[in-house]
Each structure stands twice: as C-alpha cells, then as structure tokens.
Design the sequence.
C-alpha cells in the first residue's frame, strides 16, 4: 500500500541481482553537477484517503520522521548525508502543520517548507528537493524503502500526529496511514491478520503490460482481496499450503520441518529464490573487544577452523553461496576487493596460528581461555545448527563454546551489567558494554538484509566506528573508517575503490566476522512457497526481505491469467 519516489526494476533484481533505479511516485528527477542536489518532480497522484500526494505532504513526513528520532543526525537510515544544523524542526513547526494542514499550507508554514538552508525543501506543490552535505553517488538507493515510503501526512495529523520523539503514535498500529499503492487495508487484528482490498482508484491501474514489465512494483495486482495471516508454526503454514485452491490460492513461508516435502515435490511446489549476486547474507560476529576474541590470531584461527561446507550442507541444505564480506555480492564494483578466498577451511593453519600466538603471549593459549559465549536468537533452527557445527569445530582447537539461544526480548544491548549483544546499539554504547556482550554473536537476527540499496550499507554498519547501530563485532580501524566516511563524502569512485581496497585488506587481516554465506533461500533454510498449478511467482521487496519477509503481493502472478 506504500510506494516510494523511486524503486528498483524488480524483474532485473529477481533474475540477476541487478540494481537499476526506476521512477515510482516521482515522474523524473535531476542531479546537480556537483552531486549535492536531487530535485524530484512528482506525479499527479492522490492517497487512498483522497488527499493529494504533494511535496508539502512529503516534506512534513520526512521532517516528522526526523523529529521522531529526537532530531538525530543519523536519522536517514543511519546514513549521515544531511546537514541538519539549520533545521529547526520541532513542536512549534508541528503546531503550524496541525493548524494549517499540509494540503494547502499557510504562508508562514510554506516559507519554512521553502527554506533552502534546510536540506529538504519544496519549490512547488509538485517538486521536492534534497540537498546533501557531501556527494553520495548512491543516494537514490536510500529512497526505496523505510523512510522513503510515502504516506498521507495530512491524514496522520488528523488522527493524532506523529507522537513524541522516540515513540510512534500507537493509533496507527490498528489504523494504518493511507498510502498511494494498489491495495488498501480493510481490517487489522493485531498478531493475527491484515486484510487488503484492491484500490479502485489506483493511479497506475491503466499502465500497459510493457510499462509494468519495466516497473513491476507498480502492478495493480491480480487478486481482489488479500489476507496476510500470522502463523508461528511451520505445520499450520504447510497445512494452509496443502489446502490451497485455484479460487483461494495460498503462499506460505515453509521452513525446516516441512522443507524436505517441498523440494521432494518439484512438479507441485515452487518457491522464491535469491540470485547469487544478492544482498541477503548470513554471518557471525567476533567481539574484538572481549577476551579472547580481542586477539587477532584467535579470530583468524576461528575463521580458518570453521567447516563452511558442513554448515552449508547441514544447516542450509546446500542452499548457500560462498561469500566474503563486508560487501554484498550484488555490488560487484566493491565486492571482495583483493579477491580473498571464500570458505577458507584449514584446521592445520588454525592450529599453527594459535600455537605461534601462544608462544608469543600466554594470553593466547587456549588452556587459559574461558568458555566462549555464542548468542543466537531463539527459534532460529539454521542458526542453532550452524552454531553447533562451529562449537564442534572450535573444540578441535581446544576452545570451548557455550551456545545460548536468547529470547528476542533479551537479544538487545548490554546495559546495567546485563548480558547482551552489540548490534542493536551504537558503536559507543557497544564498546562501553563489551565485557558482557558475547564473544560470538549471530550477525543480525536470522538472515541479514540491507536497510537501503547502496554498497555503503554493510560498511556503514558492521565495520563503522561511528555507527548508531549494526556494528555486531564492535570493530573499528582508521584504514577502514576512511572507506566508511568516503562513501558519503566523495563522488570520486576511483578514490573510493582504492581506499576501500585498503580497508578490505585490513578487514581480511583483522577478521571481525566469519562470513558464512550468501543465501539462495529467502528464510535461510526455507522460503515462500506456492503450488505451481495456481501461482507462477512474485517479487521480493527491493531489499531482499529487509522491509518485508514475504512476497510483495501485488506482483504475484496467477497460473492461466
């Protein structure tokens, strides 16, 4: 139901992993020669409420989201791309928005919206401008999901507003804000279901087949009504799949328990797959600040001791691609700079590394190690299977590991001396709590997908000493930081690649992560499944489940249609 100014060519993304930006709610855009100013011309579109989708609504939405972060400079998907110093957005401006509205803002409010010292401003009802503090060649990729999804700000204001900083208005949990998309929500039952109906006034419903083939996310949809149900157990989901009919077809996420039945019946079932050059990965973080994984030789030995082929076969059913991080395989220009080998299992080398380190420093002797903590999220079967294999691999080196299946409520920052994990926190907070954060931690929750379609995404999270979140290894290095910073400060790709090549070599030396693999299946050891006789396929979201872990249902194609 929500759309963005720009999106990706969904068919290219599905078939090859290619990242091609295409228009959505913007009819077109221009980029200034210095790479700082992006000007978007908007389509003549209305929200499903009937309110116009104009630049004033977008301006109010973006600054409202900024306000909800307590005016954090990293508010834009953790990308430091805007200079917010002159943006005096707060209760006074919100009061003006509530008073005049954003459909036809008052002259006083309009003068603020047009203020070009603020990084986002309007020049007309149909034109909005983003001014970056430094060149960022991949800015368009940050508009595709999350903050980039456009909603009806006037309707939001009419129903209680954004809420206080740090807390969204809970009214919208059961009363979704209108968007511009091909479906509207008709009813919601928390933790049970959401029901949708086709939008009869959808602005793109008359597009030609050729236009939709070039921009598949604009498809008006092929089902009049859609129900998304929450079902926690695999048995119930598989039962629904088996009961699917042509008049009421079902797509279900099927995981370990029933996955063998799916792949054992290739003429009956089909499922979503991810191309090799994707942005959906899995890995393990090594806490570089806590003993003994604060010793580089220990991290190197762990990386070499892991049996990746066994993990692929046992935990993922052979559905992993070898991968070297931090870059996602989709971004070939920045992927594995220097060509390090993936899956470098070599137990002898690992033992030799530890022996040499022990001879130099008794702290590196495995006999002196405590039992290492390895935290994974409770309920993730492939995580547990992977962790169990790693536990066995490290036992050969004389390293004992305790695998902790952590409830989601506790899979959080270490605060007040409590046990925790580093990823959800800022780098500074993680560093402060490193003594209670596990030596080994699953990278993310289950699988890891990007927050934006840019090559900067993993660099600005996993290996960034300034990040507000997602540095799971608490790793920082000046050589790597230079690459991190340049992603959002230079338009010179040659310089960026040279400095990121040096950063890649440093990361390869320091080994803050175990790069387990790039995923073929949407959910690691399972995927979204359907019956071939009823459905022919559909598209994942533009960030490979980073936004939604199921198929985008307006793109679903039915057999015989």
Sequence:
């Amino acid at each position: 139901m929500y759309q963005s100014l720009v999106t990706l060519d969904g068919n290219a993304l599905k078939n090859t992993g290619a990242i091609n930006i295409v228009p959505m709610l913007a009819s077109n855009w221009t980029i200034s020669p210095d790479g700082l100013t992006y000007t978007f011309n908007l389509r003549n579109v209305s929200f499903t409420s009937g309110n116009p989708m104009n630049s004033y609504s977008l301006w109010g939405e973006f600054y409202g989201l900024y306000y909800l972060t307590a005016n954090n400079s990293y508010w834009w998907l953790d990308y430091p791309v805007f200079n917010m110093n002159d943006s005096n957005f707060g209760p006074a401006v919100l009061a003006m928005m509530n008073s005049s509205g954003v459909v036809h803002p008052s002259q006083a409010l309009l003068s603020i919206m047009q203020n070009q010292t603020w990084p986002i401003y309007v020049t007309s009802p149909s034109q909005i401008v983003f001014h970056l503090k430094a060149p960022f060649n991949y800015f368009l990729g940050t508009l595709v999901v999350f903050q980039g999804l456009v909603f009806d700000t006037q309707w939001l204001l009419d129903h209680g507003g954004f809420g206080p900083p740090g807390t969204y208005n809970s009214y919208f949990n059961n009363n979704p804000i209108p968007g511009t998309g091909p479906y509207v929500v008709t009813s919601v039952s928390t933790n049970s279901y959401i029901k949708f109906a086709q939008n009869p006034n959808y602005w793109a419903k008359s597009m030609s087949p050729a236009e939709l083939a070039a921009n598949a996310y604009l498809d008006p949809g092929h089902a009049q009504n859609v129900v998304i149900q929450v079902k926690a157990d695999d048995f119930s989901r598989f039962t629904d799949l088996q009961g699917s009919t042509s008049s009421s077809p079902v797509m279900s996420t099927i995981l370990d328990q029933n996955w063998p039945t799916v792949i054992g019946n290739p003429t009956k079932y089909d499922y979503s797959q991810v191309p090799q050059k994707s942005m959906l990965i899995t890995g393990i973080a090594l806490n570089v600040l806590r003993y003994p994984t604060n010793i580089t030789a220990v991290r190197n030995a762990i990386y070499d001791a892991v049996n990746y082929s066994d993990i692929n076969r046992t935990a993922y059913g052979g559905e992993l691609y070898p991968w070297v991080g931090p870059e996602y395989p989709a971004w070939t220009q920045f992927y594995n700079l220097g060509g390090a080998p993936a899956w470098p299992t070599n137990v002898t080398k690992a033992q030799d590394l530890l022996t040499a380190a022990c001879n130099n420093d008794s702290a590196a002797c495995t006999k002196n190690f405590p039992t290492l903590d390895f935290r994974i999220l409770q309920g993730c079967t492939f995580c547990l299977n992977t962790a169990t294999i790693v536990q066995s691999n490290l036992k050969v080196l004389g390293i004992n590991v305790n695998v902790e299946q952590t409830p989601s409520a506790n899979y959080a920052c270490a605060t007040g001396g409590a046990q925790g994990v580093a990823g959800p926190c800022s780098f500074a907070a993680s560093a402060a709590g490193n003594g209670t954060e596990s030596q080994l931690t699953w990278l993310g929750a289950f699988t890891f997908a990007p927050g934006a379609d840019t090559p900067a995404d993993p660099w600005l999270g996993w290996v960034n000493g300034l990040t507000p979140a997602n540095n799971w290894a608490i790793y920082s290095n000046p050589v790597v930081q230079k690459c991190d910073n340049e992603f959002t400060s230079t338009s010179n790709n040659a310089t960026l690649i040279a400095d990121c090549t040096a950063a890649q070599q440093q990361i390869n030396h320091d080994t803050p992560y175990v790069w387990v693999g790039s995923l073929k299946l949407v959910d690691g050891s399972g995927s979204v499944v359907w019956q071939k006789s009823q459905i022919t396929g559909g598209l994942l979201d533009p960030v490979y489940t980073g936004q939604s872990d199921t198929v985008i249902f307006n793109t679903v194609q039915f057999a015989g249609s």
Notes: DSSP finds 16 helices and 22 strands in the chain. The chain has a mean pLDDT of 95. The chain has three domains: 3-171, 235-273+525-558, 281-519. The first strand starts at residue 3 and ends at 4.
